[in-house]
From TrEMBL:
It comes from Streptomyces doebereineriae. Residues 36-268 form the AB hydrolase-1 domain. Residues 175-202 form a coiled coil. The keyword Coiled coil applies. Signal peptide: none annotated. The lineage of its organism: Bacteria, Bacillati, Actinomycetota, Actinomycetes, Kitasatosporales. PANTHER family: AB HYDROLASE-1 DOMAIN-CONTAINING PROTEIN, HYDROLASE, ALPHA/BETA FOLD FAMILY PROTEIN. Keywords: Coiled coil, Hydrolase. This is Alpha/beta hydrolase. InterPro entries: AB_hydrolase (IPR050471), AB_hydrolase_1 (IPR000073), AB_hydrolase_fold (IPR029058).
Length: 282
């Protein structure tokens, strides 16, 4: 399969691949050759919810593949209510693409799925970036429904995107970062992905709550190099969970971005992208 080398995220085509009889939607760009970086996106997100500055910044140097997991966006099937099953679906997609080794970049829920891939099929994974995420059994993760509901109430009352409240601080810098981030998401205007379904939303929330209640995984078996990143005031996945996760993974490094929240890697994308590229090239 050949990557779309010269295109940017705003116009790269959406393709599908059969994964065990189910069509999975994906986009691919960047140079051919080398180990590709597979992106795993967040709660209630589809392909159009990836920050183009991060995608294009990494794709300038590395092959990037972003996909909708089972039941998400334009992919077929139904979203399973368990991150372990999401991990198995991600492994099936990677193998269906004919990939023998990948780097993973998982944000939020996608970071939980990336951990499952590393635990279930470690032979597939070379390096991992875990952003705005925490481990199964992490403190406060089971409260995701309450946190999300509060943000969606504020969203309805103010006619603002819920991510304004969930991803960014409510000070002047955070509000400016939220505005810029949401504007970047609107840069792609054609061949958009399908919106997230109600079934997918409910199943993802159930999966995150179950992950919060789950017994902690033995993260010491993840021996690949891992870059853990978060903001210093994450409302969705407490920043302390990122620090805990980095301590429990033997070969992990931790970066906490200042005055930022769950979307710290988007707010600080100018720092995050070169740090990711340096990590992947080490």
């Amino acid at each position: 399969m050949k990557a779309t080398e010269s295109m940017k995220w705003i116009d790269v085509p959406t393709r599908t691949i059969d994964v065990g009889g189910v069509p999975f939607a994906y986009r691919e760009l960047g140079p051919t050759g080398g180990v590709p970086v597979v992106f795993l996106h967040h709660l209630m997100a589809v392909l159009d919810d990836w920050d183009p500055r991060i995608i294009d910044g990494i794709a300038a140097h590395r092959r990037v593949i972003a996909f909708d997991n089972r039941g998400v966006g334009a992919s077929g099937g139904s979203v399973p209510p368990d991150v372990a099953d999401m991990g198995r679906d991600a492994v099936a997609f990677i193998r269906a693409m004919g990939l023998e080794k990948v780097d993973l970049l998982g944000f939020s829920l996608g970071g939980g799925v990336a951990q499952m891939v590393a635990l279930q099929a470690p032979e597939l994974v070379r390096r991992i970036i875990l952003a705005g995420t925490g481990p199964r059994g992490g403190g406060g993760i089971k409260e995701i429904n309450k946190v999300a509901a509060g943000a969606y109430v504020k969203s309805a009352l103010t006619l603002q995107d819920a991510r304004t409240f969930l991803f960014f601080p409510r000070d002047a810098e955070g509000k400016r970062a939220a505005k810029d981030y949401l504007a970047r998401l609107k840069e792609r205007t054609q061949n958009l992905d399908e919106k997230i379904s109600l079934q997918a939303r409910r199943a993802q929330l159930k999966a995150i709550r179950a992950a919060g209640l789950h017994a902690p995984d033995d993260l010491s078996v993840i021996t690949q190099p891992v870059f853990v990143a978060n903001g210093d005031h994450d409302l969705m996945v407490a920043s302390s969970n990122s620090a805990d996760m980095a301590r429990r993974i033997p070969n992990a490094r931790l970066k906490i971005y200042p005055n930022s929240g769950h979307g710290g890697v988007f707010q600080h994308h100018r720092d995050f992208v070169p740090e990711v590229l340096e990590f992947l090239n080490d």
